[in-house]
Amino acid sequence: MDFDLSAEQEAVADVVTSVMQRDLSWKALADGGVAALALPERLGGDGVGLSEVGTVLTEVGRHGAITEALATLGFGVVPLLDLASDEQQDRFLANVAKGGVLSAALNEPGRALPDRPSVTFSGGRLSGVKLGVGYAESADWLLVTADTAVVVVSPKADGVRLVRTPTSNGSDEYTVTFDDVAVADSDVLDGASTARVNQLALAMLGAYADGLVAGALRLTADYVAGRKQFGKPLSTFQTVAAQLAEVYIASRTIDLAAKAVIWKLAEGRDADSDLDVLGYWLASQAPPVMQICHHLHGGMGMDVTYPMHRYYSTIKDLTRLLGGPSHRLDLVGV
Length: 334
Known about the structure:
Blueprint: H1 7-20, H2 26-31, H3 50-62, H4 69-83, H5 86-92, E1 102-105, E2 120-122, E3 125-134, E4 141-145, E5 150-153, E6 160-164, E7 173-182, H6 194-226, E8 228-229, E9 232-233, H7 238-266, H8 272-297, H9 308-322, H10 325-333
Parallel strand pairs: 1-4
Antiparallel strand pairs: 2-3, 3-7, 4-5, 6-7, 8-9
InterPro entries: Acyl-CoA_Oxase/DH_mid-dom_sf, AcylCo_DH-like_C, AcylCo_DH/oxidase_C, AcylCoA_DH/ox_N, AcylCoA_DH/ox_N_sf, AcylCoA_DH/oxidase_NM_dom_sf
Keywords: FAD, Flavoprotein, Oxidoreductase
Domain Acyl-CoA dehydrogenase/oxidase N-terminal: 19-99
């Protein structure tokens, strides 16, 4: 396996970086053509693969951008390209290139990314509760995992109720209740499995988190190199260097795990064990190394207008969506 970026991935990374250096918003990504990269050519896209979408999310994370990118590209576009028919893709992905938002309702009360959801789908009716649904109110469509099917629902459909819930990074997140919501046959993803949706979602979340940790490491390294104490840069102190080394090791390991998962999924290989390792490593290692980055920033790390806040708060939200380290460790042992 060669995890160096391909020429196409390098080009994608350059495009994302050029946009993010000017504007961190989802609108900017859409205006810059990034939102359309994964779409089929018939929808005005470039038809790039799973690895390139992962590169997009990694670079978005590297810049600490809190946007609809993960929800739309990672939880919406990627599963729909993998599981939906061409006709369904044409309907559900129609507005993405112009900045339209998609999201997915995957988590349930007390259950992170369950492969056997409690939400029920029977007789064309959807009922149940989903938690942690990002950008649900502004989304055109929600991908919903249920006990017997994977369906796509409008958040404005009759019987759908949205309640906004707090997040660490201030992004839009909702608890979504489906009360006997009617779902047309054309909105059911024929043959799709919840397990496959969860695999793709975790892989894309891992790519985004990979960028967040790498970005926080770069931000912290630059800060301690420029900050002086006792007339010397903080980076020259042995304790500071040792703590940065811990962050570097965690960052490189997360990068390896994230890329291995995406490579296996893209190649059609069994990635179950790799996904479990990725989920556990993110939940157990990303939060502590973010704490180290905060500590090395001193008071600056506590300033919510300073970029470090975006990295750490987003990792906290992602860890919650994963179910926490104990839950992820249980899955590794299954």
